[in-house]
Amino acid sequence: MVDQQELQKGADRVAIQDLMARYAYAVDSKRWELLDEVFVEGAEIDFLANGGVKDDWPAIGGWLATAMSGFTACQHYLSNFVTEVDGHRASSRFYVFTQMVTVQDGSDHIVSDGGYYNAAFVRTPAGWRVTRLSGGIVWWSGSVPDHLPWWGVDGDRFNQ
Q: Is-above-0.85 flag for pTM?
């Protein structure tokens, strides 16, 4: 017998993964206006663990645009979603692997990082939207930026 509630939770998990794919697409394509379809007004975004800032949406949009402006190309890959759905609310932790390209002296240089996001969601009339998003970088490969507070410091980066 098919449990309709479990089917709905499965559909909700897929919709949440699609929402976060839209987030990655907006950031990678630098189409910041698309983030209005990802976040609720006033959503809390916390990138302090990445050496970034903590602010709400849409105020953090300007910081995102500046932070990503140094990359000629960028691709976020999201995976390993562990998502809990409870009615019209949900939470998820998932991995992110990012490839970023900078141009130095006429050649491409690739830097990569791996980390995670923690997110909270609410179901709205327009579909699922993010109410809280925080990220953490677990590792970095390539030219390491000065702003990473954890670089070279021993400790548990996975559970920040």
A: yes
